[in-house]
Amino acid sequence: MIKAIDLFKSFGPQKALNGFELNLKKGEILGLHGPNGSGKSTFMKIIAGGILKYDGEVLIDKMSPSLITKNKISYLSDNNLFPDGNTVQETIEFYRHFYMDFDMDHFFQILQKLNVNLSMKTKLIELSKGIRQLIRIALCMARDVELYLLDEPLAGIDPIAVEVVIDTLVDSMHEKSTMIIATHEVAIIERILTRVIFIKDGHSCGDYDCEEVRLNEGLSIESKYKEIFSHA
Ligand SMILES: Nc1ncnc2c1ncn2[C@@H]1O[C@H](COP(=O)(O)OP(=O)(O)OP(=O)(O)O)[C@@H](O)[C@H]1O
């Protein structure tokens, strides 16, 4: 579904990606984990079509990032892209008009699972950070796409709600879709991952099948993370 070959991206003298490689099959749920500044968001932005200048090759379903691939992707960025002065209703309307694949019924079902009850007239700015993030997750997952890209989806969400969010991600994801989740919350997210890539200084320093790590090495993904990064 996604191939990254020898991917380089610099911002001035700063190398954000430095020979990053990935080969991800359809249906996988990939955890992309690494220290601050390791290149996770930069990689997600390239896949999402938000960064167009880079060296190396990126293929999404055999195509370079373009308008066609953008339509196959639902992207939850690490920045808030919605005007906070808009109401919940206006935000939903924006999604409905912008994305043909947005399913409003599915959106409300997800909100219900997340236990979010809202007045449509409430402005986003009037809501807490965590509730705004839950709405953004629901908007992202209510699209029927082949690839979900979630950058720090759990930021600002309380520990009880986080477990519901994680279940909701898997339940909402369409069959045969693929998901990439960049997060520091390795211990919390690992139960839904099929694959994990550890990234440091813009390149992969470990690419594992999660089941193999658990069964063959007897390690959790969090322990594997600590093993790799405490020696890095
Ligand atoms: N627009 C930009 N301009 C300049 N430097 C940037 C820009 N975007 C990213 N960088 C730099 O590229 C490197 C990788 O950043 P990136 O945001 O991809 O890391 P990250 O792994 O997502 O970090 P974090 O976990 O802290 O969110 C960092 O050194 C960062 O400062």
Automatic annotation (TrEMBL):
Domain ABC transporter: 2-226
InterPro entries in the cross-refs: AAA+_ATPase, ABC_transporter-like_ATP-bd, ABC_Transporter_VariousFunc, P-loop_NTPase
Annotated keywords: ATP-binding, Nucleotide-binding, Transport
PROSITE patterns tied to this protein: ABC_TRANSPORTER_2 (PS50893)
Entry's Gene Ontology molecular function annotations: ATP binding; ATP hydrolysis activity
Stored CDD domains: ABC_DR_subfamily_A
Keyword hit for DNA damage: no
A Pfam short name: ABC_tran
Keyword Nucleotide-binding belongs to the record: yes
Protein name per Swiss-Prot or TrEMBL: ABC transporter ATP-binding protein
Organism, as annotated: Thiospirochaeta perfilievii
